[in-house]
Specification:
Number of strands: 0
Number of domains: 1
Structural class: mainly alpha
Oligomer: single chain
Bound molecules: fe (ii) ion
CATH class: Mainly Alpha
Distance between the termini: 42 Å
Largest sheet: none
Shape: globular
CATH superfamily: Ribonucleotide Reductase, subunit A
Order of helices and strands: HHHHHHHHHHHHH
C-alpha cells in the first residue's frame, strides 16, 4: 500500500510501531533465565502492590504468609492477563476481516497478536516457575468471557484494550526495579512493559481517530461499558480464592478487607489515573461512569 510518503496517518503511525518492533522485541523462551533459582526470602510482587498491604490482617501475617499471598496474587494477575490477551487477540483477528490486508495498520495488528501469543506463553511459564497454579475461569465464566466478543465492537475494541493494558501496565511499572522482588518476575514485567507500550500507543491512536466519528448511540454504549469496566477490574484483582490458597481461611472476608483497603485503592488509582484522564478528556466517561470510577478509587 504505497511508499511511506503516501501512507494514511494511521498507517504511518502503524509503520513506526512496526519499525519499533523490529528494533526491540523479546522471545521469553530464551530471553528469561528460567533455570535461575527462586530467592527463598523475596516476594513475588512488591508488598505495596499486594491487596491487603497496610491492613491489620496483613500485619498479622508472618513473612512466610505474606510471601505466599504475594505469590498467589501474582498467579491471579498473570491468569487474568492470559485470558484477557486471548480475548483481545480474538477481537483483533475479527477486525482484520474487515480491514485492508495490505495496510500497515493490518500488519501491525498481526504483529501485536504475535506479541500477545508470546506473552501468554511467558505468563504461563512464569506461573509454573513460581510454583503456583493458574486461576482459571470456570465453564460459566468462560462463557461470559467468550460472549464479550459480541459486545466489544467498534470503539469498544480499543477501549477494552486500553482498560486491560493501561491499568496492568501502570501496576507493572510499580513492580520494576524493586530489589526486593524475585528477579524472574522483574524480568518478565520489564519485557511486558516494553512491548505493551507499543500496544497502548496503537489502541490510543485508533481510539482518538474513532471518537469524532462516533454516533450518539455508540457514545452512550461506550460510556456504559467504561462504567462497568471499573468494578469488573476491581472484582478480578480481588479474587477470593487467592486468599484461601494463601492460607487465609475466610477468603471472602479477606476480599472485603482488600476492597475497603485505602492503600489498595490508591495502588489501583495510580494504575487507572492516566487511562481515566484520557478517557475523560475524550468524553468517554459519562456521569454514571464518573460516580462508579470515583467510588472504586479509580478517578
Ligand atoms: Fe501482552
Ligand atoms: Fe498488549
Amino acid at each position: 500500500m504505497g511508499n511511506d510518503a503516501t501512507l494514511l496517518p494511521q498507517d504511518s503511525f502503524a509503520q513506526r510501531l512496526l519499525t519499533g518492533h523490529v528494533k526491540k522485541f523479546y522471545d521469553p523462551v530464551v530471553d528469561i533465565d528460567w533455570d535461575a533459582p527462586l530467592d527463598p526470602d523475596k516476594l513475588f510482587l512488591p508488598a505495596e502492590v499486594v491487596s491487603l498491604y497496610g491492613t491489620p490482617l496483613w500485619e498479622s501475617l508472618s513473612h512466610e504468609q505474606q510471601r505466599e499471598l504475594s505469590r498467589q496474587e501474582l498467579a491471579n494477575v498473570l491468569s487474568v492477563g492470559i485470558w484477557f490477551e486471548n480475548l483481545l487477540n480474538r477481537l483483533l483477528l475479527r477486525e482484520l476481516m474487515s480491514g485492508n490486508p495490505t495496510s500497515r495498520h493490518s500488519h501491525y495488528t498481526l504483529t501485536e497478536m504475535g506479541d500477545e501469543c508470546r506473552h501468554m506463553m511467558m505468563f504461563g511459564k512464569l506461573i509454573d516457575r513460581v510454583e503456583a497454579k493458574p486461576y482459571w475461569p470456570n465453564p460459566y465464566e468462560r462463557l461470559v468471557i467468550s460472549s464479550l466478543q459480541i459486545f466489544l465492537r467498534g470503539s469498544m475494541v480499543w477501549v477494552g484494550a486500553l482498560v486491560g493494558e493501561e491499568i496492568f501496565d501502570a501496576i507493572q511499572r510499580q513492580t520494576l526495579d524493586d530489589p526486593e522482588l524475585q528477579p524472574v518476575v522483574a524480568r518478565a514485567m520489564r519485557i511486558h512493559v516494553t512491548e505493551e507500550a507499543r500496544h497502548i500507543g496503537f489502541a490510543r491512536d485508533a481510539l482518538v481517530r474513532r471518537v469524532p466519528t462516533m454516533s450518539k448511540a455508540e457514545l452512550a454504549y461506550t460510556r456504559l461499558c467504561v462504567a462497568i469496566a471499573a468494578p469488573l477490574f476491581v472484582h478480578l484483582m480481588t479474587n477470593w480464592h487467592m486468599y484461601v490458597r494463601a492460607g487465609i481461611e475466610d477468603g471472602r472476608g479477606a476480599r472485603r478487607i482488600a476492597r475497603a483497603n485505602p492503600h489498595a485503592q490508591r495502588t489501583l488509582g495510580i494504575g487507572a489515573a492516566n487511562l481515566g484522564a484520557s478517557l475523560d478528556k475524550q468524553g468517554l466517561i459519562g456521569p454514571l461512569g464518573k460516580r462508579i470510577w470515583r467510588r472504586r478509587g479509580l478517578l
